[in-house]
């Protein structure tokens, strides 16, 4: 059996932060069958800032108590995604830093309505590859919750 010492182990569910969006303490479901990660969003509005494409949206925190958080991020692209129920739809794609445990790296997220889903975030295989993570599906919440100060380089 091969082992990979340089890879961090995560469980099927983990706590994450999205510090550039001001989102802290979000439960994420790991989905190795999805290529791109997905973030629950509504009220999605594309706009221009200094000649660049951006998107403004409402993110939702928590599952029992819904807290809304208004976010803005540069728009990376618009992708045609086939959802788990087989329907294709166009989704806005953003890139933002993700904090999981003591790691921090940029991840692309599609913005999608996930209000009927238990988890507001899915982490897809591209995020796992870039973060050099392996999944043990028998475990959950292996990594410590990212600290409130999981800041970006140069931030306090």
Automatic annotation (TrEMBL):
InterPro entries on file: Asp_endopeptidase, Peptidase_aspartic_dom_sf
Alphabetical list of SUPFAM superfamilies matching this protein: Acid proteases
Annotated organism of origin: Ectopseudomonas composti
Cleaved signal peptide residues: none
Retropepsin-like aspartic endopeptidase domain mapped to chain residues: 9-146
Name of this chain's protein: Uncharacterized conserved protein
């Amino acid at each position: 059996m091969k082992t990979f010492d340089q890879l961090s182990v995560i469980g099927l569910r983990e706590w994450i932060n999205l510090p550039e969006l001001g989102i802290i303490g979000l439960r994420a479901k790991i989905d190795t069958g999805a290529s791109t990660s997905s973030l629950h969003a509504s009220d999605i509005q594309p706009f221009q800032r200094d000649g660049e494409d951006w998107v403004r949206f409402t993110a939702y925190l928590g599952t029992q108590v819904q807290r809304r958080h208004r976010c803005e991020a540069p728009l990376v692209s618009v992708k045609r995604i086939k959802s788990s129920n087989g329907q294709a739809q166009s989704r806005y794609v953003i890139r933002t830093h993700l904090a999981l445990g003591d790691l921090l790296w940029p991840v692309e997220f599609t913005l999608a309505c996930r209000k009927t889903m238990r988890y507001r975030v899915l982490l897809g295989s591209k995020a796992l590859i870039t973060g050099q993570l392996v999944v043990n599906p028998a475990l959950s919440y292996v990594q410590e919750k990212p600290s409130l100060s999981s800041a970006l380089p140069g931030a306090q």
